[in-house]
Task: inverse folding
């Protein structure tokens, strides 16, 4: 489980839960899947319901991963593996699923989706946490792309006080 991120997501974003509740599907990379699958199927409450009952897709490349099947506790009928030609499969999913497909974290997957022009909206939550690694969200994005800021929101909670920065 991504323990450094979830408190901020669950407690500091007023609409975080609503985003997951309204989603028609969740698309995630292998690392996020491994963390989420070891945690959410065994939880209870609104967040767990949103995570467990929503259709999920795990995107990974066969040559980069030993992942050959995916499981989600007692909710195995809600999860599928996309392990070859992932961007083509995501294009198909976007045609089949009429509502929102959300991608929680999964930096490498987000980079691939951006490069393939498959993201309709990008929501970025900046955590007041320093992990000490040099991974950037846009490192492989080589083309210039124009975007509009639809909304920004400063959040306050027990982990972060915007006035203290």
Result:
């Amino acid at each position: 489980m991504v323990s450094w991120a979830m408190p901020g997501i669950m407690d500091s974003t007023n609409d975080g839960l609503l985003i997951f509740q309204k989603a028609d599907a969740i698309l995630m990379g292998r690392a996020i899947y491994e963390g989420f699958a070891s945690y959410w199927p065994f939880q209870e409450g609104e967040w767990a319901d949103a995570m467990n009952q929503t259709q999920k897709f795990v995107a990974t490349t066969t040559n980069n991963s030993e992942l050959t099947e995916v499981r989600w506790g007692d909710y195995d009928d809600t999860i599928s593996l996309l392990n070859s030609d992932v961007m083509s499969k995501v294009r198909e999913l976007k045609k089949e699923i009429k509502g929102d497909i959300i991608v929680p974290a999964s930096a490498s997957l987000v980079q691939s989706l951006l490069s393939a022009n498959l993201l309709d909206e990008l929501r970025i939550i900046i955590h007041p946490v320093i992990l000490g690694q040099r991974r950037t969200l846009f490192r492989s994005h080589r083309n210039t792309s124009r975007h509009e800021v639809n909304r920004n929101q400063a959040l306050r909670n027990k982990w972060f006080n915007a006035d203290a920065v």
